[in-house]
């Protein structure tokens, strides 16, 4: 059936990604559990992947930190598309007028809706010094965006109502070298960081009538190598008082556009995100917001994320976290997402996070980390 054979399992495992319409990237389990906040709070490995301006903040006073492994998965189903397409395929071949009317209803209801599925593995190593911090990161995105278009035999209803499933994936793998330093201005700490990144891009494009969409066809679709490019990020944090800081990052300061063999453009545009955090020791409160809207490259919604999160820390041994994020982009219909998670010290850090939203939207993240 469509739900399990094509999207929920197959595309997650065998296809590739579109990161541009997902909320601001999943970097580690702590930030995911706190609604995806990372601009002004988090450890040095989070900073290495998200905002290099946080590298010198070093909330946990680590000399060295290793994030390995960290992996997450997320599905955003705008309009409950997966479940309805599963039902549509189950009705194929029926001549019952009620079944034909139900197929028509399903297709009209999900036309132009989209499903986004993602797998995100990360790894990071950071060496912290008194005046300079550096590291190395590996980050990958395996995400697919699938949209229903081009309905036939629907209005008026015919004997074989159908539509087209178009899926686009962009596999993005990158290696970064985050670096940061800090200076004091009138007693206020200003931390600065940059991350040069080498980025490799591959795509898959899949198009099929809904009635015959099949996982084997997805697996057998060849990938297209769009080549590599280099860019860099820059970030800054400002500690206004001991317990309150603000952060800002600019991603992809060197913009790039890749074009597929069928003429579809994959854009890596400069993106700005800001955040603030109040750290009271036992309790941390934080909020992040995209300052620029990220355009879709397939049929999904644009993205402009706003996130809030909280953490309760019990004796630096157990942490409980919760968060909320919403898409503020014009015309976006993505469901709001709620998240929860926990961290525990077992001689190493073990962190987990879960994300849920309406219309079969969900996600999870797990990681282990070492600090010394």
TrEMBL record:
<protein>
    <submittedName>
        <fullName>Uncharacterized protein</fullName>
    </submittedName>
</protein>
<dbReference type="Pfam" id="PF13729">
    <property type="entry name" value="TraF_2"/>
</dbReference>
<dbReference type="InterPro" id="IPR032811">
    <property type="entry name" value="Put_conjugal_transfer"/>
</dbReference>
């Amino acid at each position: 059936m469509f739900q399990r054979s094509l999207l929920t399992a197959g595309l997650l495992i065998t296809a590739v990604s579109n990161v541009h319409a997902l909320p601001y990237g999943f970097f580690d389990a702590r930030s995911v559990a706190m609604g995806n906040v990372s601009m002004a709070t988090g450890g040095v490995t989070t900073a290495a992947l998200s905002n290099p301006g946080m590298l010198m903040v070093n909330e946990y006073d680590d000399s060295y930190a290793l994030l390995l492994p960290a992996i997450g998965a997320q599905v955003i189903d705008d309009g409950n598309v997966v479940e309805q397409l599963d039902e549509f395929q189950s009705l194929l071949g029926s001549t019952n007028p009620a079944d034909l009317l139900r197929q028509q209803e399903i297709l009209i209801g999900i036309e132009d809706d989209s499903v986004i599925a993602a797998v995100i593995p990360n790894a990071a190593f950071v060496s912290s010094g008194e005046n300079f911090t550096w590291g190395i990161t590996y980050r990958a995105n395996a995400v697919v965006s699938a949209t229903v278009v081009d309905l036939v035999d629907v209005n008026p209803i015919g004997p074989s109502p159908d539509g087209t499933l178009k899926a686009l994936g962009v596999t993005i793998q990158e290696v970064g070298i985050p670096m940061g330093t800090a200076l004091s201005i009138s007693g206020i700490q200003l931390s600065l960081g940059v991350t040069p990144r080498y980025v490799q891009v591959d795509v898959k494009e899949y198009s099929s009538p809904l009635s015959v969409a099949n996982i084997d066809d997805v697996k057998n679709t060849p990938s297209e190598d769009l080549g590599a490019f280099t860019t860099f990020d820059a970030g800054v944090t400002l500690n206004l008082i001991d317990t309150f800081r603000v952060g800002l990052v600019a991603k992809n300061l060197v913009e790039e556009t890749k074009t597929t063999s069928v003429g579809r453009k994959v854009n890596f545009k400069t993106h700005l995100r800001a955040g603030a955090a109040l750290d009271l020791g036992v309790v941390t409160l934080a909020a992040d917001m995209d300052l620029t809207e990220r355009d879709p490259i397939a049929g999904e919604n644009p993205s402009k994320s706003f996130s809030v999160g909280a953490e309760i820390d019990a004796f630096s041994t157990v942490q409980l976290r919760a968060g909320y994020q919403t898409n503020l982009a014009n015309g976006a219909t993505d469901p709001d997402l709620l998240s929860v998670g926990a961290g525990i010290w077992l001689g190493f850090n073990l962190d987990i996070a879960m994300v849920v939203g309406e219309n079969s939207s969900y996600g999870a993240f797990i990681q282990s980390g070492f600090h010394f």
